[in-house]
Amino acid sequence: MDIRPMDILVMKKKHPCGSCHMLVLRSGMDFKLRCEGCGHEFMVPRSKIEKNIKSVERHEEKEP
Q: How many whole angstroms separate alpha carbon 45 and alpha carbon 17?
């Protein structure tokens, strides 16, 4: 699965604050994510995150 920094992941399960949107800060064997609802940052193994992703929102930058 192609997930890059600054992508927003929509998760199947909600964070305890109620938000299901997570911003990817770092990707690799582990992901560093920030909850879009409360701002909490945490690290999670790739295998655990990939099976809980509902969709990926990618904001492409337009080139001039």
A: 21
The answer regarding whether domain 8-57 maps to CATH 1.10.150 reads no
Counting as low any pLDDT under 70, the low residues of the chain are 60-64
Give the span between the Cα atoms of 56 and 62, in whole angstroms.
18
Q: Which pLDDT value is given to residue 64?
A: 54
What pTM was estimated for this model as a whole? 0.84
The amino acid at residue 39 is: G
Count of beta carbons in the 10 Å neighbourhood of residue 61: 5
- What is the rounded distance in angstroms from the CA atom of residue 20 to the CA atom of residue 22? 7
